Amino acid sequence: MNALERQEEALIDCGVDPAHVIRAALRRAVKNWQLGPDFIAPSEEQRTRITEWRARTSLGVHAGAMNALLRAHDPLDVLSKWTLIRGQLEPRVWAEIDRLIEEIAALNSQAGNEGG
Description:
mainly alpha; 116 residues
């Protein structure tokens, strides 16, 4: 999992290690997430090329939902499981990255106002 290219500058400028922001976004995104029954194609949006920020995790998914996706979209089991679920999960992580960047900016602004 990695951030979008459009998020790079804000991640660099936010004052928190971007890898930490991405891992926190991933934790938030999967906290109440459940795999849906429908395949959603992965987004074509450009991901950042900064590989040091990449977050890896193992996800527990409902076996029935995973089997339904496999039967409908990969009956020969040739795709990775990640390929089948990333279209559902990546947009949630990117939205959480955006929220975290906003929250960090608000905290930085508040701290700047209190100090001045």
